[in-house]
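Hello again,

I reread your note about wanting to compare the complex against the isolated chains. To keep things tidy I'm splitting this into two emails, and this first one only covers the full assembly. Below are the input lines as submitted, including protein chains and any nucleic acid or small-molecule components. They are followed by the predicted structure of everything together. The single-chain runs will come separately.
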Amino acid sequence: VAVAWIGVALWWSAGCNEVRLAGDDDDDDAAATEPTSPAGGAVTLDAAAAFDPLRAPLAIAVTAPPGAAVSVEVVAEGGAAVWAAEATADDAGAVALSWDGRIEGGEIAAAGAHRLRASADDLEAEAALGIVRAGFVAAWLEGDEGVTATREPLFWPVARELQDEGEPIAALDAIDDGAVPLDFPAVAPGPMAVRPDGAEPAAFIYDARPILALQVADVTGDGGPTGLDATEVAVAVDGWTVLEGSPLVPGAAVVLQRDEPLGDTVGVSELTLELALSAGGDPLGVQILPLRIYRLLDVSAFVGAQDPYRPWAPVVEQALVAIDGAPAEPYAVVDALVEFVYNDLGLTYDTDFGASAYSEYSGWSYQDPHFLLSDFLVRRFGSVINCSDAGNILGAYANMVGARLDHLILSPGFDLNYIHAIGTAEHTRCPFGVGGCGFNYHAVTTIPESGAIWDATLALDGDAAPGASPSIDLMVQAISGAEYLDRLVRSGDPQYQNQAQETLQ
Amino acid sequence: MIALTIAVAAGAVEPPLVGLPFGRLDAAGLLVPTVSTVAPLSMRYPLDGGDGFAVVVVRPTSGDASAAFDGMAKTLATHWPDPGPALAGRDLGERTLGDGAGVVLVSSANAVVFVRDRGGRAAEVASRVLGAMTRDPADCAGETRLLDGRPADGCGRPR
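Full-complex prediction:
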């Protein structure tokens, strides 16, 4: 019976390997001419066309005459057998085997082209088998000048370093450690004051479709071949389209782009990308790439062109986690940041003197506000602040996530209606105690041309009588300049002046 | 309306100079400063124990320092208390503002010192700072460099 099948190449089924019978001299890619049957004395072989032994073992299914002694072997290109196994076909003629890719001595077989053979008595089936060690060793996130994605480099203040799109956001020394395939590391949690090793976050405008480039490893972890020159391996990522570079070429890049925008809000996108590798439609395994992407309202709104005026990693991390989901619109973003600064940063107004812990003005006039942001991030001078500090904090956070916000001075001094200063317990007209019922000056913030005020230093009395108790909190979020003065000022005639964007150090 | 209260020390005619080396501030408890990149020759130090901070400004002349004092009085605090007992018996400098306990601003010769001390020793800290930095004019020969790299005389006055 077996003789009748000699010379016939068979396609077993979709996703199954080519099966050939002994004596076939045709080209490996010859098409099947007739179906085959596992019964009746033939030997058939069903296995994936390729596998990555570190990611998943190779499942081998053989059919042979019931009770037959079956031999299975993997033969390298030079003809040497690298692995062999013996089994007896069951009553249905089936044999199921698995190979983890290890050869005698426990080593992983070298990647490359192999043949898989099964034989029983004088019957034999054979198929091509690719052993691959595929994976990626570096990942970049890129923009395309705003066509579909705008990336904004992050700044690390401690090291005074600016991200470069030419540098990977995640990298591995190798795709495996010799025994276990390696995933990309996650971005280390924390305040991001220090540039993390291994993986970094990236910032894009919220509606970007980021471009991802992956560098294909050209060697395995122990320096061996990847086998990609002998076996075509493709990569796919759910929700991303491969633009170029698949099938993989050792050392080359695969480029993908996200299908959908990151979102329609500002915040933080934590993505876990499964880089699904396959050969001939058979899955090889998955390499994980965690991404942490900040969804900015826009590129930095600071007019300063120097590196420290790009978004600081610890600032956008803190701010965008806090306001994640805020609508991507300037007023909404600054509104959310006011709540964040007022409620969440652990700051308290200096109810003794209203001293500026982190702020200066160039030339000691009200012009050109200047913020000691590096010191503020580590609370070098404590958490007790004044209005200049609150204005600069709000301004720094807003401008860095893309909402232009300017500093504004109210001067000359004035007496107060009821306010609820940041970090204090209650409304008062006299935040500095008896005799301390006014401000020499007051600093607030505004979006240029808006005519509106944002202030994280204090909540106003929001009821119909802001000069009398009781009081209800009115957060200063896009309140008109006139209403703000009406509610804040008991006596005096302060004017808005010295509008300027702060500088940073 | 809150009026600024400025006390002018009597009898200060030719005060000694105040200047670098700022290393002498170590002895006054001020260690590593933040050097302002915008405010002229302004250094801000955290106080021991996280109780507050001190701002030390050195200007070329006492006139420049007095002008800086005025500006700092306007912009460094929104409320200045009247002089308090902590200032009693202290001759900190030509001009003094604050209660001397939680806050003090002093102009002395060519320097201005602002101290915000939640521990209540502002005048004491300012006194130590000025004492550590004060030099006889005869000691000012030679050349030093300011923390921002600019050349200065031996007392730290910018050239």
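For quick reference: The interface with chain B takes residues 350, 352-357, 360-366, 368, 370, 372, 374-375, 380-382, 384, 386-388, 412-415, 431-432, 436, 438-442, 491-492, 503, 505 of chain A (CB under 8 Å).

B.
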